[in-house]
Design goal:
signal; 3-stranded parallel sheet; GH; glycosidase; polysaccharide degradation
């Protein structure tokens, strides 16, 4: 199982300190997901595509992704992962 492709934490400084338009950030996210999932296609049966997108009260977590792309980034991330590996099981992972 691949864990995790998209997370609000542990992102590189060039990403978190950058100034991004939504289109640029969408491109970065799509490229990352496509690259990682394709790299392990056929080697991993499942992916935690988006990790911990919710606060403990069930609201959306304020993140680089949600603040700039809206909460639709979650569905888009799953769509891109599915395109990269159509047979993998895809999950949204959260601990609560």
């Amino acid at each position: 199982r691949g864990h995790t492709v998209v997370w609000h934490s542990q992102n590189p400084g060039w990403l978190t300190n950058g100034t991004w338009t939504p289109a640029q950030l969408t491109s970065v996210l799509q490229d990352h997901i496509t690259t990682e999932v394709t790299r392990y296609k056929g080697k991993l049966a499942a992916w935690d595509v988006v990790n911990e997108p919710f606060n403990e009260d069930g609201t959306y977590r304020s993140t680089l992704w949600s603040n700039n792309l809206g909460t639709d980034y979650i569905a888009q991330a799953l769509t891109w992962a599915r395109a990269a590996d159509p047979t993998a099981k895809l999950s949204l992972n959260d601990y609560n």
